[in-house]
Amino acid sequence: MRYSTFGKTGYEVSSLGFGAMNLPGVPLEQARAALNYALDEGINYIDTAAGYRNSEEIIGETISHRRSEYFLATKTNNRDYKTAKEEIERSLDRMKTDVIDLLQIHYVNFVQDFKAAMEEDGAYYAALEMKNKGHVRFIGITGHRPELLAKWISKGQFDQVLFHLNLAQPFALQELIPEANRQGMGKTAMKPLSGGFIQPVEKAIRYPYSQDVHTVISGMVSVEEVRENIAAMRVEVGAEERSELESLALQLGSHNCRRCNYCSCPVGVAIPDVMISSRIRETLGLLPKGNGFYDRMKDKILACAEYEPCKEKPLCEEKCPYHLPMQQTVQAAAGYYVTK
Hints:
CATH topology of the largest domain: TIM Barrel
Number of domains: 2
CATH architecture of the largest domain: Alpha-Beta Barrel
Distance between the termini: 39 Å
Mean pLDDT: 97
InterPro entries: AKR, AKR2_Oxidoreductase, NAD(P)_OxRdtase_dom_sf, NADP_OxRdtase_dom
Shape: globular
CATH class of the largest domain: Alpha Beta
Strand order of the largest sheet: 3-4-5-6-7-8-9-10
Pfam families: Aldo_ket_red
CATH superfamily of the largest domain: NADP-dependent oxidoreductase domain
Largest sheet: 8 strands, parallel, barrel
Strand content: 5-15%
Domain NADP-dependent oxidoreductase: 16-199
Radius of gyration: 20 Å
Number of strands: 10
Protein name: Aldo/keto reductase
Order of helices and strands: EEEHEHEHEHHEHEHEHEHHHHHH
């Protein structure tokens, strides 16, 4: 396992982090085994959030007795001081700890959300107060708009930033990572499989592993998945492989969707998932989870072409800050059901 100094925090963190978002979907004993195996194998970065159902409680129940062995990161999705502070206090109780190593202001994608969180009665000041009291060590920010995150972190108010970085979403390389480096921040990459679309797993993991980040959090739910993710990082990425991975990322990222979720579909198509998986589906094929997504989404994707209000001007495209051809991509995805 590779370790590196997590920006100006001074902590040494493992190159692979344990993303605990999906643990509520498996039996407690399976979650317990996965988390403890991860710690046994040297993973020391545990990522969760107050909004991930009972993920924090699972961490408290299964590994709080090993608290000194891991760097603990959680998140609040609230924007105001009062509810954010209450949530941070609940997180401490749920995870059975006196201190959260990293408290992140979570899912900040809109300018108005950032402004609200940074007001004097905002969530940032709740985190700052808890830091001054010794219950939070560092404050971070997460989001899906890398160019906005680059702007927001430039004032030096955050210790860490969490962002998408995978073969289908390489966009953080352009502005965000360079700005984080200028600020001396911890850099956490998430969604190496882009939510279960990218295969093979080893290739997917090795792309963000090859980039300038401190830790890559992967949403693991079993000992087998932890073992598979660790195996992908056993060998360093050489120059030739890195060049190949970066070329593939340019190809798979040509959809240009950041998953900012500004768009919405009147017939219920999960547009970002279709956009991001479009190039993956054509080039690499999909993981079983990705195929399951398309199976569930079939009726909605097929309905897109017949939805009358969108025939003249797609309603989803009006909301996209990147002006992407979403309707065209969704309708092209209907071919999945012909070729399957």
